[in-house]
Amino acid sequence: MRYRVRHITTYTYGAPVSLCYNMAHLLPRDTHNQRCLNQRVQINPPPVYRNEGEDYFGNQTFYFSIQEAHKKLVIDVLSDFEIFPIDLTMWQQNNTTTCGQLRANLKMPMTPQMRMAKEFLMDSSQIRRSEELKAYAQSTFSDDKPLIKAALEFTHKIFTEFKFDPSTTTVATPLEQVLKQRSGVCQDFAHLAIGCLRSVGIPARYISGYLETLPPPGQEKLVGADASHAWFSIFVPELGWVEFDPTNDVMPNDQHIVTAWGRDYADVTPLQGVIFEGGGSQQLAVSVDVKRLL
Amino acid sequence: MQSQTGLLTAPTVDASSTTKAPTFSSYGQPTNAYDEAFKEDRQPRPHWQDVLASVEKLGPEGRIASERRVQRILREDGATYNLSSDPLSPSVWELDLIPNIITSTDWSVIETGLKQRSALFDLIYKDLYGPQELLKNGTIPAEIIFGHPDFLRQCHNLTTPGQHDLLMHAVDLVRDKNGLFQVIGDRTQVPNGAGYALENRAVISRVFPILFRNNQVQRISSFFHAFKGMLSKLTSAWTDTPRIVVLTPGAYSSSYFEQAYQANYMGFPLVQGSDLTVRNGAVWMKSLNGLARVDVILRRVEDARCDQAELRADSMLGVPGLLEVARAGNVVIANPLGSGLLESPVLLKYLPAISQFLTGQQLALPSVPTWWAGDPMDLEYITNHINQLIIKPIARRADKKSIYGHTLDEKQCQETIEKIKKTPHLYVAQSYIPGAMSPIFDNGQLQAAPTMLRGFTMSDQDGYSVMPGGLSRVSQCDDDMIVSNLSKSKSKDTWVLSTQPLSNKVASNDQAILHDEAVQTNLPSRVVENLFWMGRYAERAEISMRLLRTLFKQMNGIDPLPIESRRLLLEMASRQTGCLPGFTKADDEMITNPDKELISIIIDNKRPGSVKANLHAMLNCGEQVKEMLSADTRIIINELRDHIHELDRAYTNGLPSAPEESLDSLVTSLLALSGLNHESMLRGLDWTFQEIGRRTERAIQTATLLRAALTKSLPEPEQQQILESVLLSVEALISFRRRYRNRSRVAYGLDLLMIDGTNPRSLIYQVDQLRKYIQELPRNDVPAAGLSPENRLVIKSLTDIQLADLEVIAAVDRTTNTRTELESLMTQLLEQLEQFTVLISDKYFDHTEGPQPLSMANWETSL
User: Fold this and answer.
1) What is the residue-averaged pLDDT of chain B?
2) Among B219, B237, B192, which residue's Cα sits nearest to residue B329?
3) Contact residues, chain B, for A119 at CB < 8 Å
4) Which of the pair, A92 or A20, is modelled with greater confidence?
């Protein structure tokens, strides 16, 4: 499947900004089933310095700095890529690793992959393990249950027990509150799931990306289209990282486009940095358009 | 060699013999530690004999005199540590009279060990910020690094030009009871102490020049020269003449003295984060001549605070965008960002295995036994042996102190264990090794104190080279714990003995406190701004004090002061200092009993404009640019501090009996300061700006004084009294009397104070000087037609003064009984002068606001 994603970010400032330095995670990366065909970034006003790179997690980064006074900053990213479908049913049927086996393996890791997976088992800046999170997930991830099955159940649990409601949270809402109020947006659900998984000893990471905007004929449009989306993946021995989308109760396949992954949102913030002078009231507008290419 | 009997024999603790030497009476035999200076038979070790004998020969008075000399030199050099933000009470660096002496045999063990260790740490940096093989194969449990707060993922794949990433390294060593050296810690992100070692050497070699020469002590200055050479070569890809700067967290960081000292010694400008800016993918220094490219940053700011754009956004010390410049290879940062991770004490546990894996070698110098609480077996050991261990947080933080197990009672032990068990992966435990004993002087007595040595290495072509010396520290606490930070301990010069005689050429290097390169060229504009303000505050303080002195003299004079004169003089004091309303709205009671307000004008430093507030502000500016001040200037500033303390004491119980005298010594110090500037400062831009500050301020103060004193017309003899007070306070009364005999007309006074170009305190003299100085300032903007605005203002002021008709100015408007022309001319001049300072400041000083983080609010809430 081929897609074209256009992601436009617009910052509007109350007073002119004289200087800015920004690190962007806006260029989708390659994954085991996703390949970037071409990319184009346009920034206005034009940056005096720009540099593409790769971060610690292997995500594509785009760094730029602007030295002319501006009240409006527009970052327009266009990328084309191809996604190959995965036979998820086979994964679900063939992988029999249980939660208990994974936990035991992590305690005495014998392979480099297992050791490195521990990075996603630990607290990160926006996700802390806790007893409350553990209590919410513990029964689902019992020792004898196959890992993928448990994760599917858990994804379904969040999908059914939480209400999608953008008015109830911000980027700063703590997980405990999300858990209590049982509502939030895709980023909250992803963070919540990761926090729960880590609390029960399952390595989990955060994925940011997009969803196909126009559904195929006869299918319903998925929530989170026309905007950035977020979900999570867990570490499954033999298979590697397997993705789940609790906002839509699915295992992402060829309709989910991955931009970047990390321990949490803070590792893959779409745009971070500082501005000098001006600023004042900052306003942010994001528009995303995902099209299927023929 | 000296005799080995009698005074040189250290008695054992239980020796009750009356013949024992008073000097060494309290020098006990260490029970469970190695003794650096004495053998087990209490005879001095051969390499200590000469030093101990010489110290002995000094006698009690001689030793105390030498100790005082050490303290005096340190104070004059401005050697401080842990400076509180109070400019009046810096704590002086402590240095013991007796050096720590290390034989060449012992030294070669240390040298070999440190070289190997630094090379290994460089490889660890490369691996953890690169392929992470150490984690993949389990040499280091991955969760240690992944959960470590100093592991900065943003620094992944960061490289430094040249062979090494780790360009310098400091290692703390102690000698165990068997005399073997062990490493107890590493400093990698901002390894400090080398500058203090240099200062210690400079002081001790001055106090004991002959002893120093006779002992063939290895010189350490070449290490600094080599270090400078090493930094200069790293930028060869783009320049052969790199600009190297020292990035300081600021004048109130605890080791600012060392940073300034080292910067001066090597000839590097000392800059703060806000002095630098990232433009066009490179780092630049904001200087008076515009932006100047920076190629190497020797940083004293910790990792996470170096770049607000990618690291801690709340940092006040960083340079936004710096990390990306380093990533792109357009600046060298020593040490590279992220190197704080290597300081973690947890690495010591795994170091033998790491060395085996990365180099196939065994460690030449062992590290102190270390346990990681994140390992269940280690945690059990820690729980059972907590009394014998030091508990350290896994990441070094100023606010997180080590816990010494042997100082804890039963309850505290339990609490500590509980704390560790909550987050075991964040704690490390180490064996407690008290360190070898060495002799120190304490109140003229020789005492034994546990000693620790910090060694320093730097990257070199064939590996690492080691400073032949180091920073020795001794603990002065009663419980013999080694303090691992620099505070609360006393330091020692460290003598590494050479087996070969040293050439004199090298020897002379150590003595000189080099200012070998003109640091003046291309100063950061912040430095110049501080000098400008230092000049202004000094002048402000001086003129207020002069007026107050005159006021006290007049009020306490033989003849009682008429009430009108008294009121006006007091009002002048309020207007001159700007401590308003003060006496300007005073009732008769306040005029009769002015003491309370006068005391406040002098010593209330919370009141802007008071004498003390101005002096504080001046000292603060001086602290900010300490590295620019000459040794003589520092002496005067120290005196000034002492005088301020005296002032406080004199005023504790109200006005002193002769208040005018209380200000004399302060005025004299300020005069000495400005005299020194004139006589010994190079005429660089720093001097010019300080002078512009002084001259502008003196003009402003003089105009203020004339306006306050002479606007109101008084009858004789009050008018004469006021005029004479003004003349007296600006030291012009004698000239005035000589010139005009007894004719004390206001117009004559104005002649002397306004338009007499030969009077260095006249208005015209100040403005004429300003006219000359601004010709020398750099013109970095596009040349516009005609004069610059600041130039125009100065010339206008000059002309206004020259064209003033003194008879008209001095004339009294009979309806208001005031000199309206005088008032309006002075007001106009004051406005022009204030405007002038604004123009200078806008043009030459930096006014960039700090960075603010890009808002992320509402991101993705639309999902």
Assistant:
1) 88
2) B237
3) 142, 146
4) A20
User: Do A229 and B309 count as a contact with CB atoms less than 8 A apart?
Assistant: no
Q: How far is B414 from chain A (nearest CA, A)?
A: 24
Of B147, B153, B849, the CB nearest to A277: B849
B173-190 mean pLDDT: 94
Residue-wise pLDDT for B832-846, tens only, equals: 999 999 999 888 887
Four-CA torsion B743, B747, B752, B754, nearest 10 degrees? 170
- Listing from the earlier edge strand, what are the strands of the sheet with B276-279? B276-279, B282-287, B290-294
Q: What pLDDT is attached to residue A281?
A: 81
Which domains, from first to last, does chain A contain?
A: 2-83+269-293 (2.60.40.2250), 88-253 (3.10.620.30)
Q: What is the mean pLDDT of residues A261-280?
A: 90
B-chain residue closest to A224, CA distance: B863
For residue B146, the chain A residue with the least C-alpha distance is A119
Cβ-based contacts of A271 with chain B (< 8 Å): 854, 856
Q: Are residues B602 and B734 in the same domain?
A: no
Q: Are residues B693 and B585 in the same domain?
A: no
* Cα distance between residue B785 and residue B616, in whole Å: 42
Q: How far is CA B759 from the centre of its chain?
A: 38
The answer, yes or no, to whether residue A172 has pLDDT greater than 90, is no
Nearest to B309 among A23, A227, A279 (CB): A23
Indicate the pTM of the whole model.
0.88
Is A21 in contact with B137 (Cβ distance < 8 A)? Answer: no
Q: Are A214 and A3 a contacting pair, CB within 8 Å? A: no
Residues of chain A found within 8 Å of residue B132, distances taken between Cβ atoms: 116
Least confident of A96-105, B475-484, B534-543, B656-665: B475-484
CA distances (Å), A113 to each of A33, A59, A106, A109, A240, in order?
A: 19, 18, 10, 9, 8
Q: Do A171 and B860 count as a contact with CB atoms less than 8 A apart? A: yes
Q: Beta strand A19-24 with A60-66: parallel, antiparallel or unpaired?
A: antiparallel
Report residue A288 CA to chain centroid gap: 15
Beta-carbon contacts below 8 Å between A and B: 136
Whether residue A107 contacts residue A64, with contact meaning beta carbons closer than 8 Å, is answered with: no
Least confident range from B70-84, B203-217, B235-249, B593-607: namely B70-84
Tell me what the pLDDT averaged over chain A comes to: 92
Q: Which pair of structure tokens corresponds to residue B319?
A: 């340079």
B748 and B770 belong to one structural domain: yes
B324/A118 Cβ within 8 A: no
Which residues of chain A have a CB within 8 Å of the CB of B862? 166, 227, 286
Please indicate, yes or no, whether residues B687 and B781 belong to a single structural domain of this protein. yes
Task: Give pLDDT tens digits for B85-126.
Answer: 566 666 788 899 999 999 999 999 999 999 999 999 999 999
Which of A66, A73, A259, A172 is CA-nearest to residue B858?
Answer: A172
Contacts of A277 in chain B (CB under 8 A): 848-849
Summarize the confidence of residues A36-56 as an average pLDDT: 95
Looking at residues B762-784, what average pLDDT do you find?
85
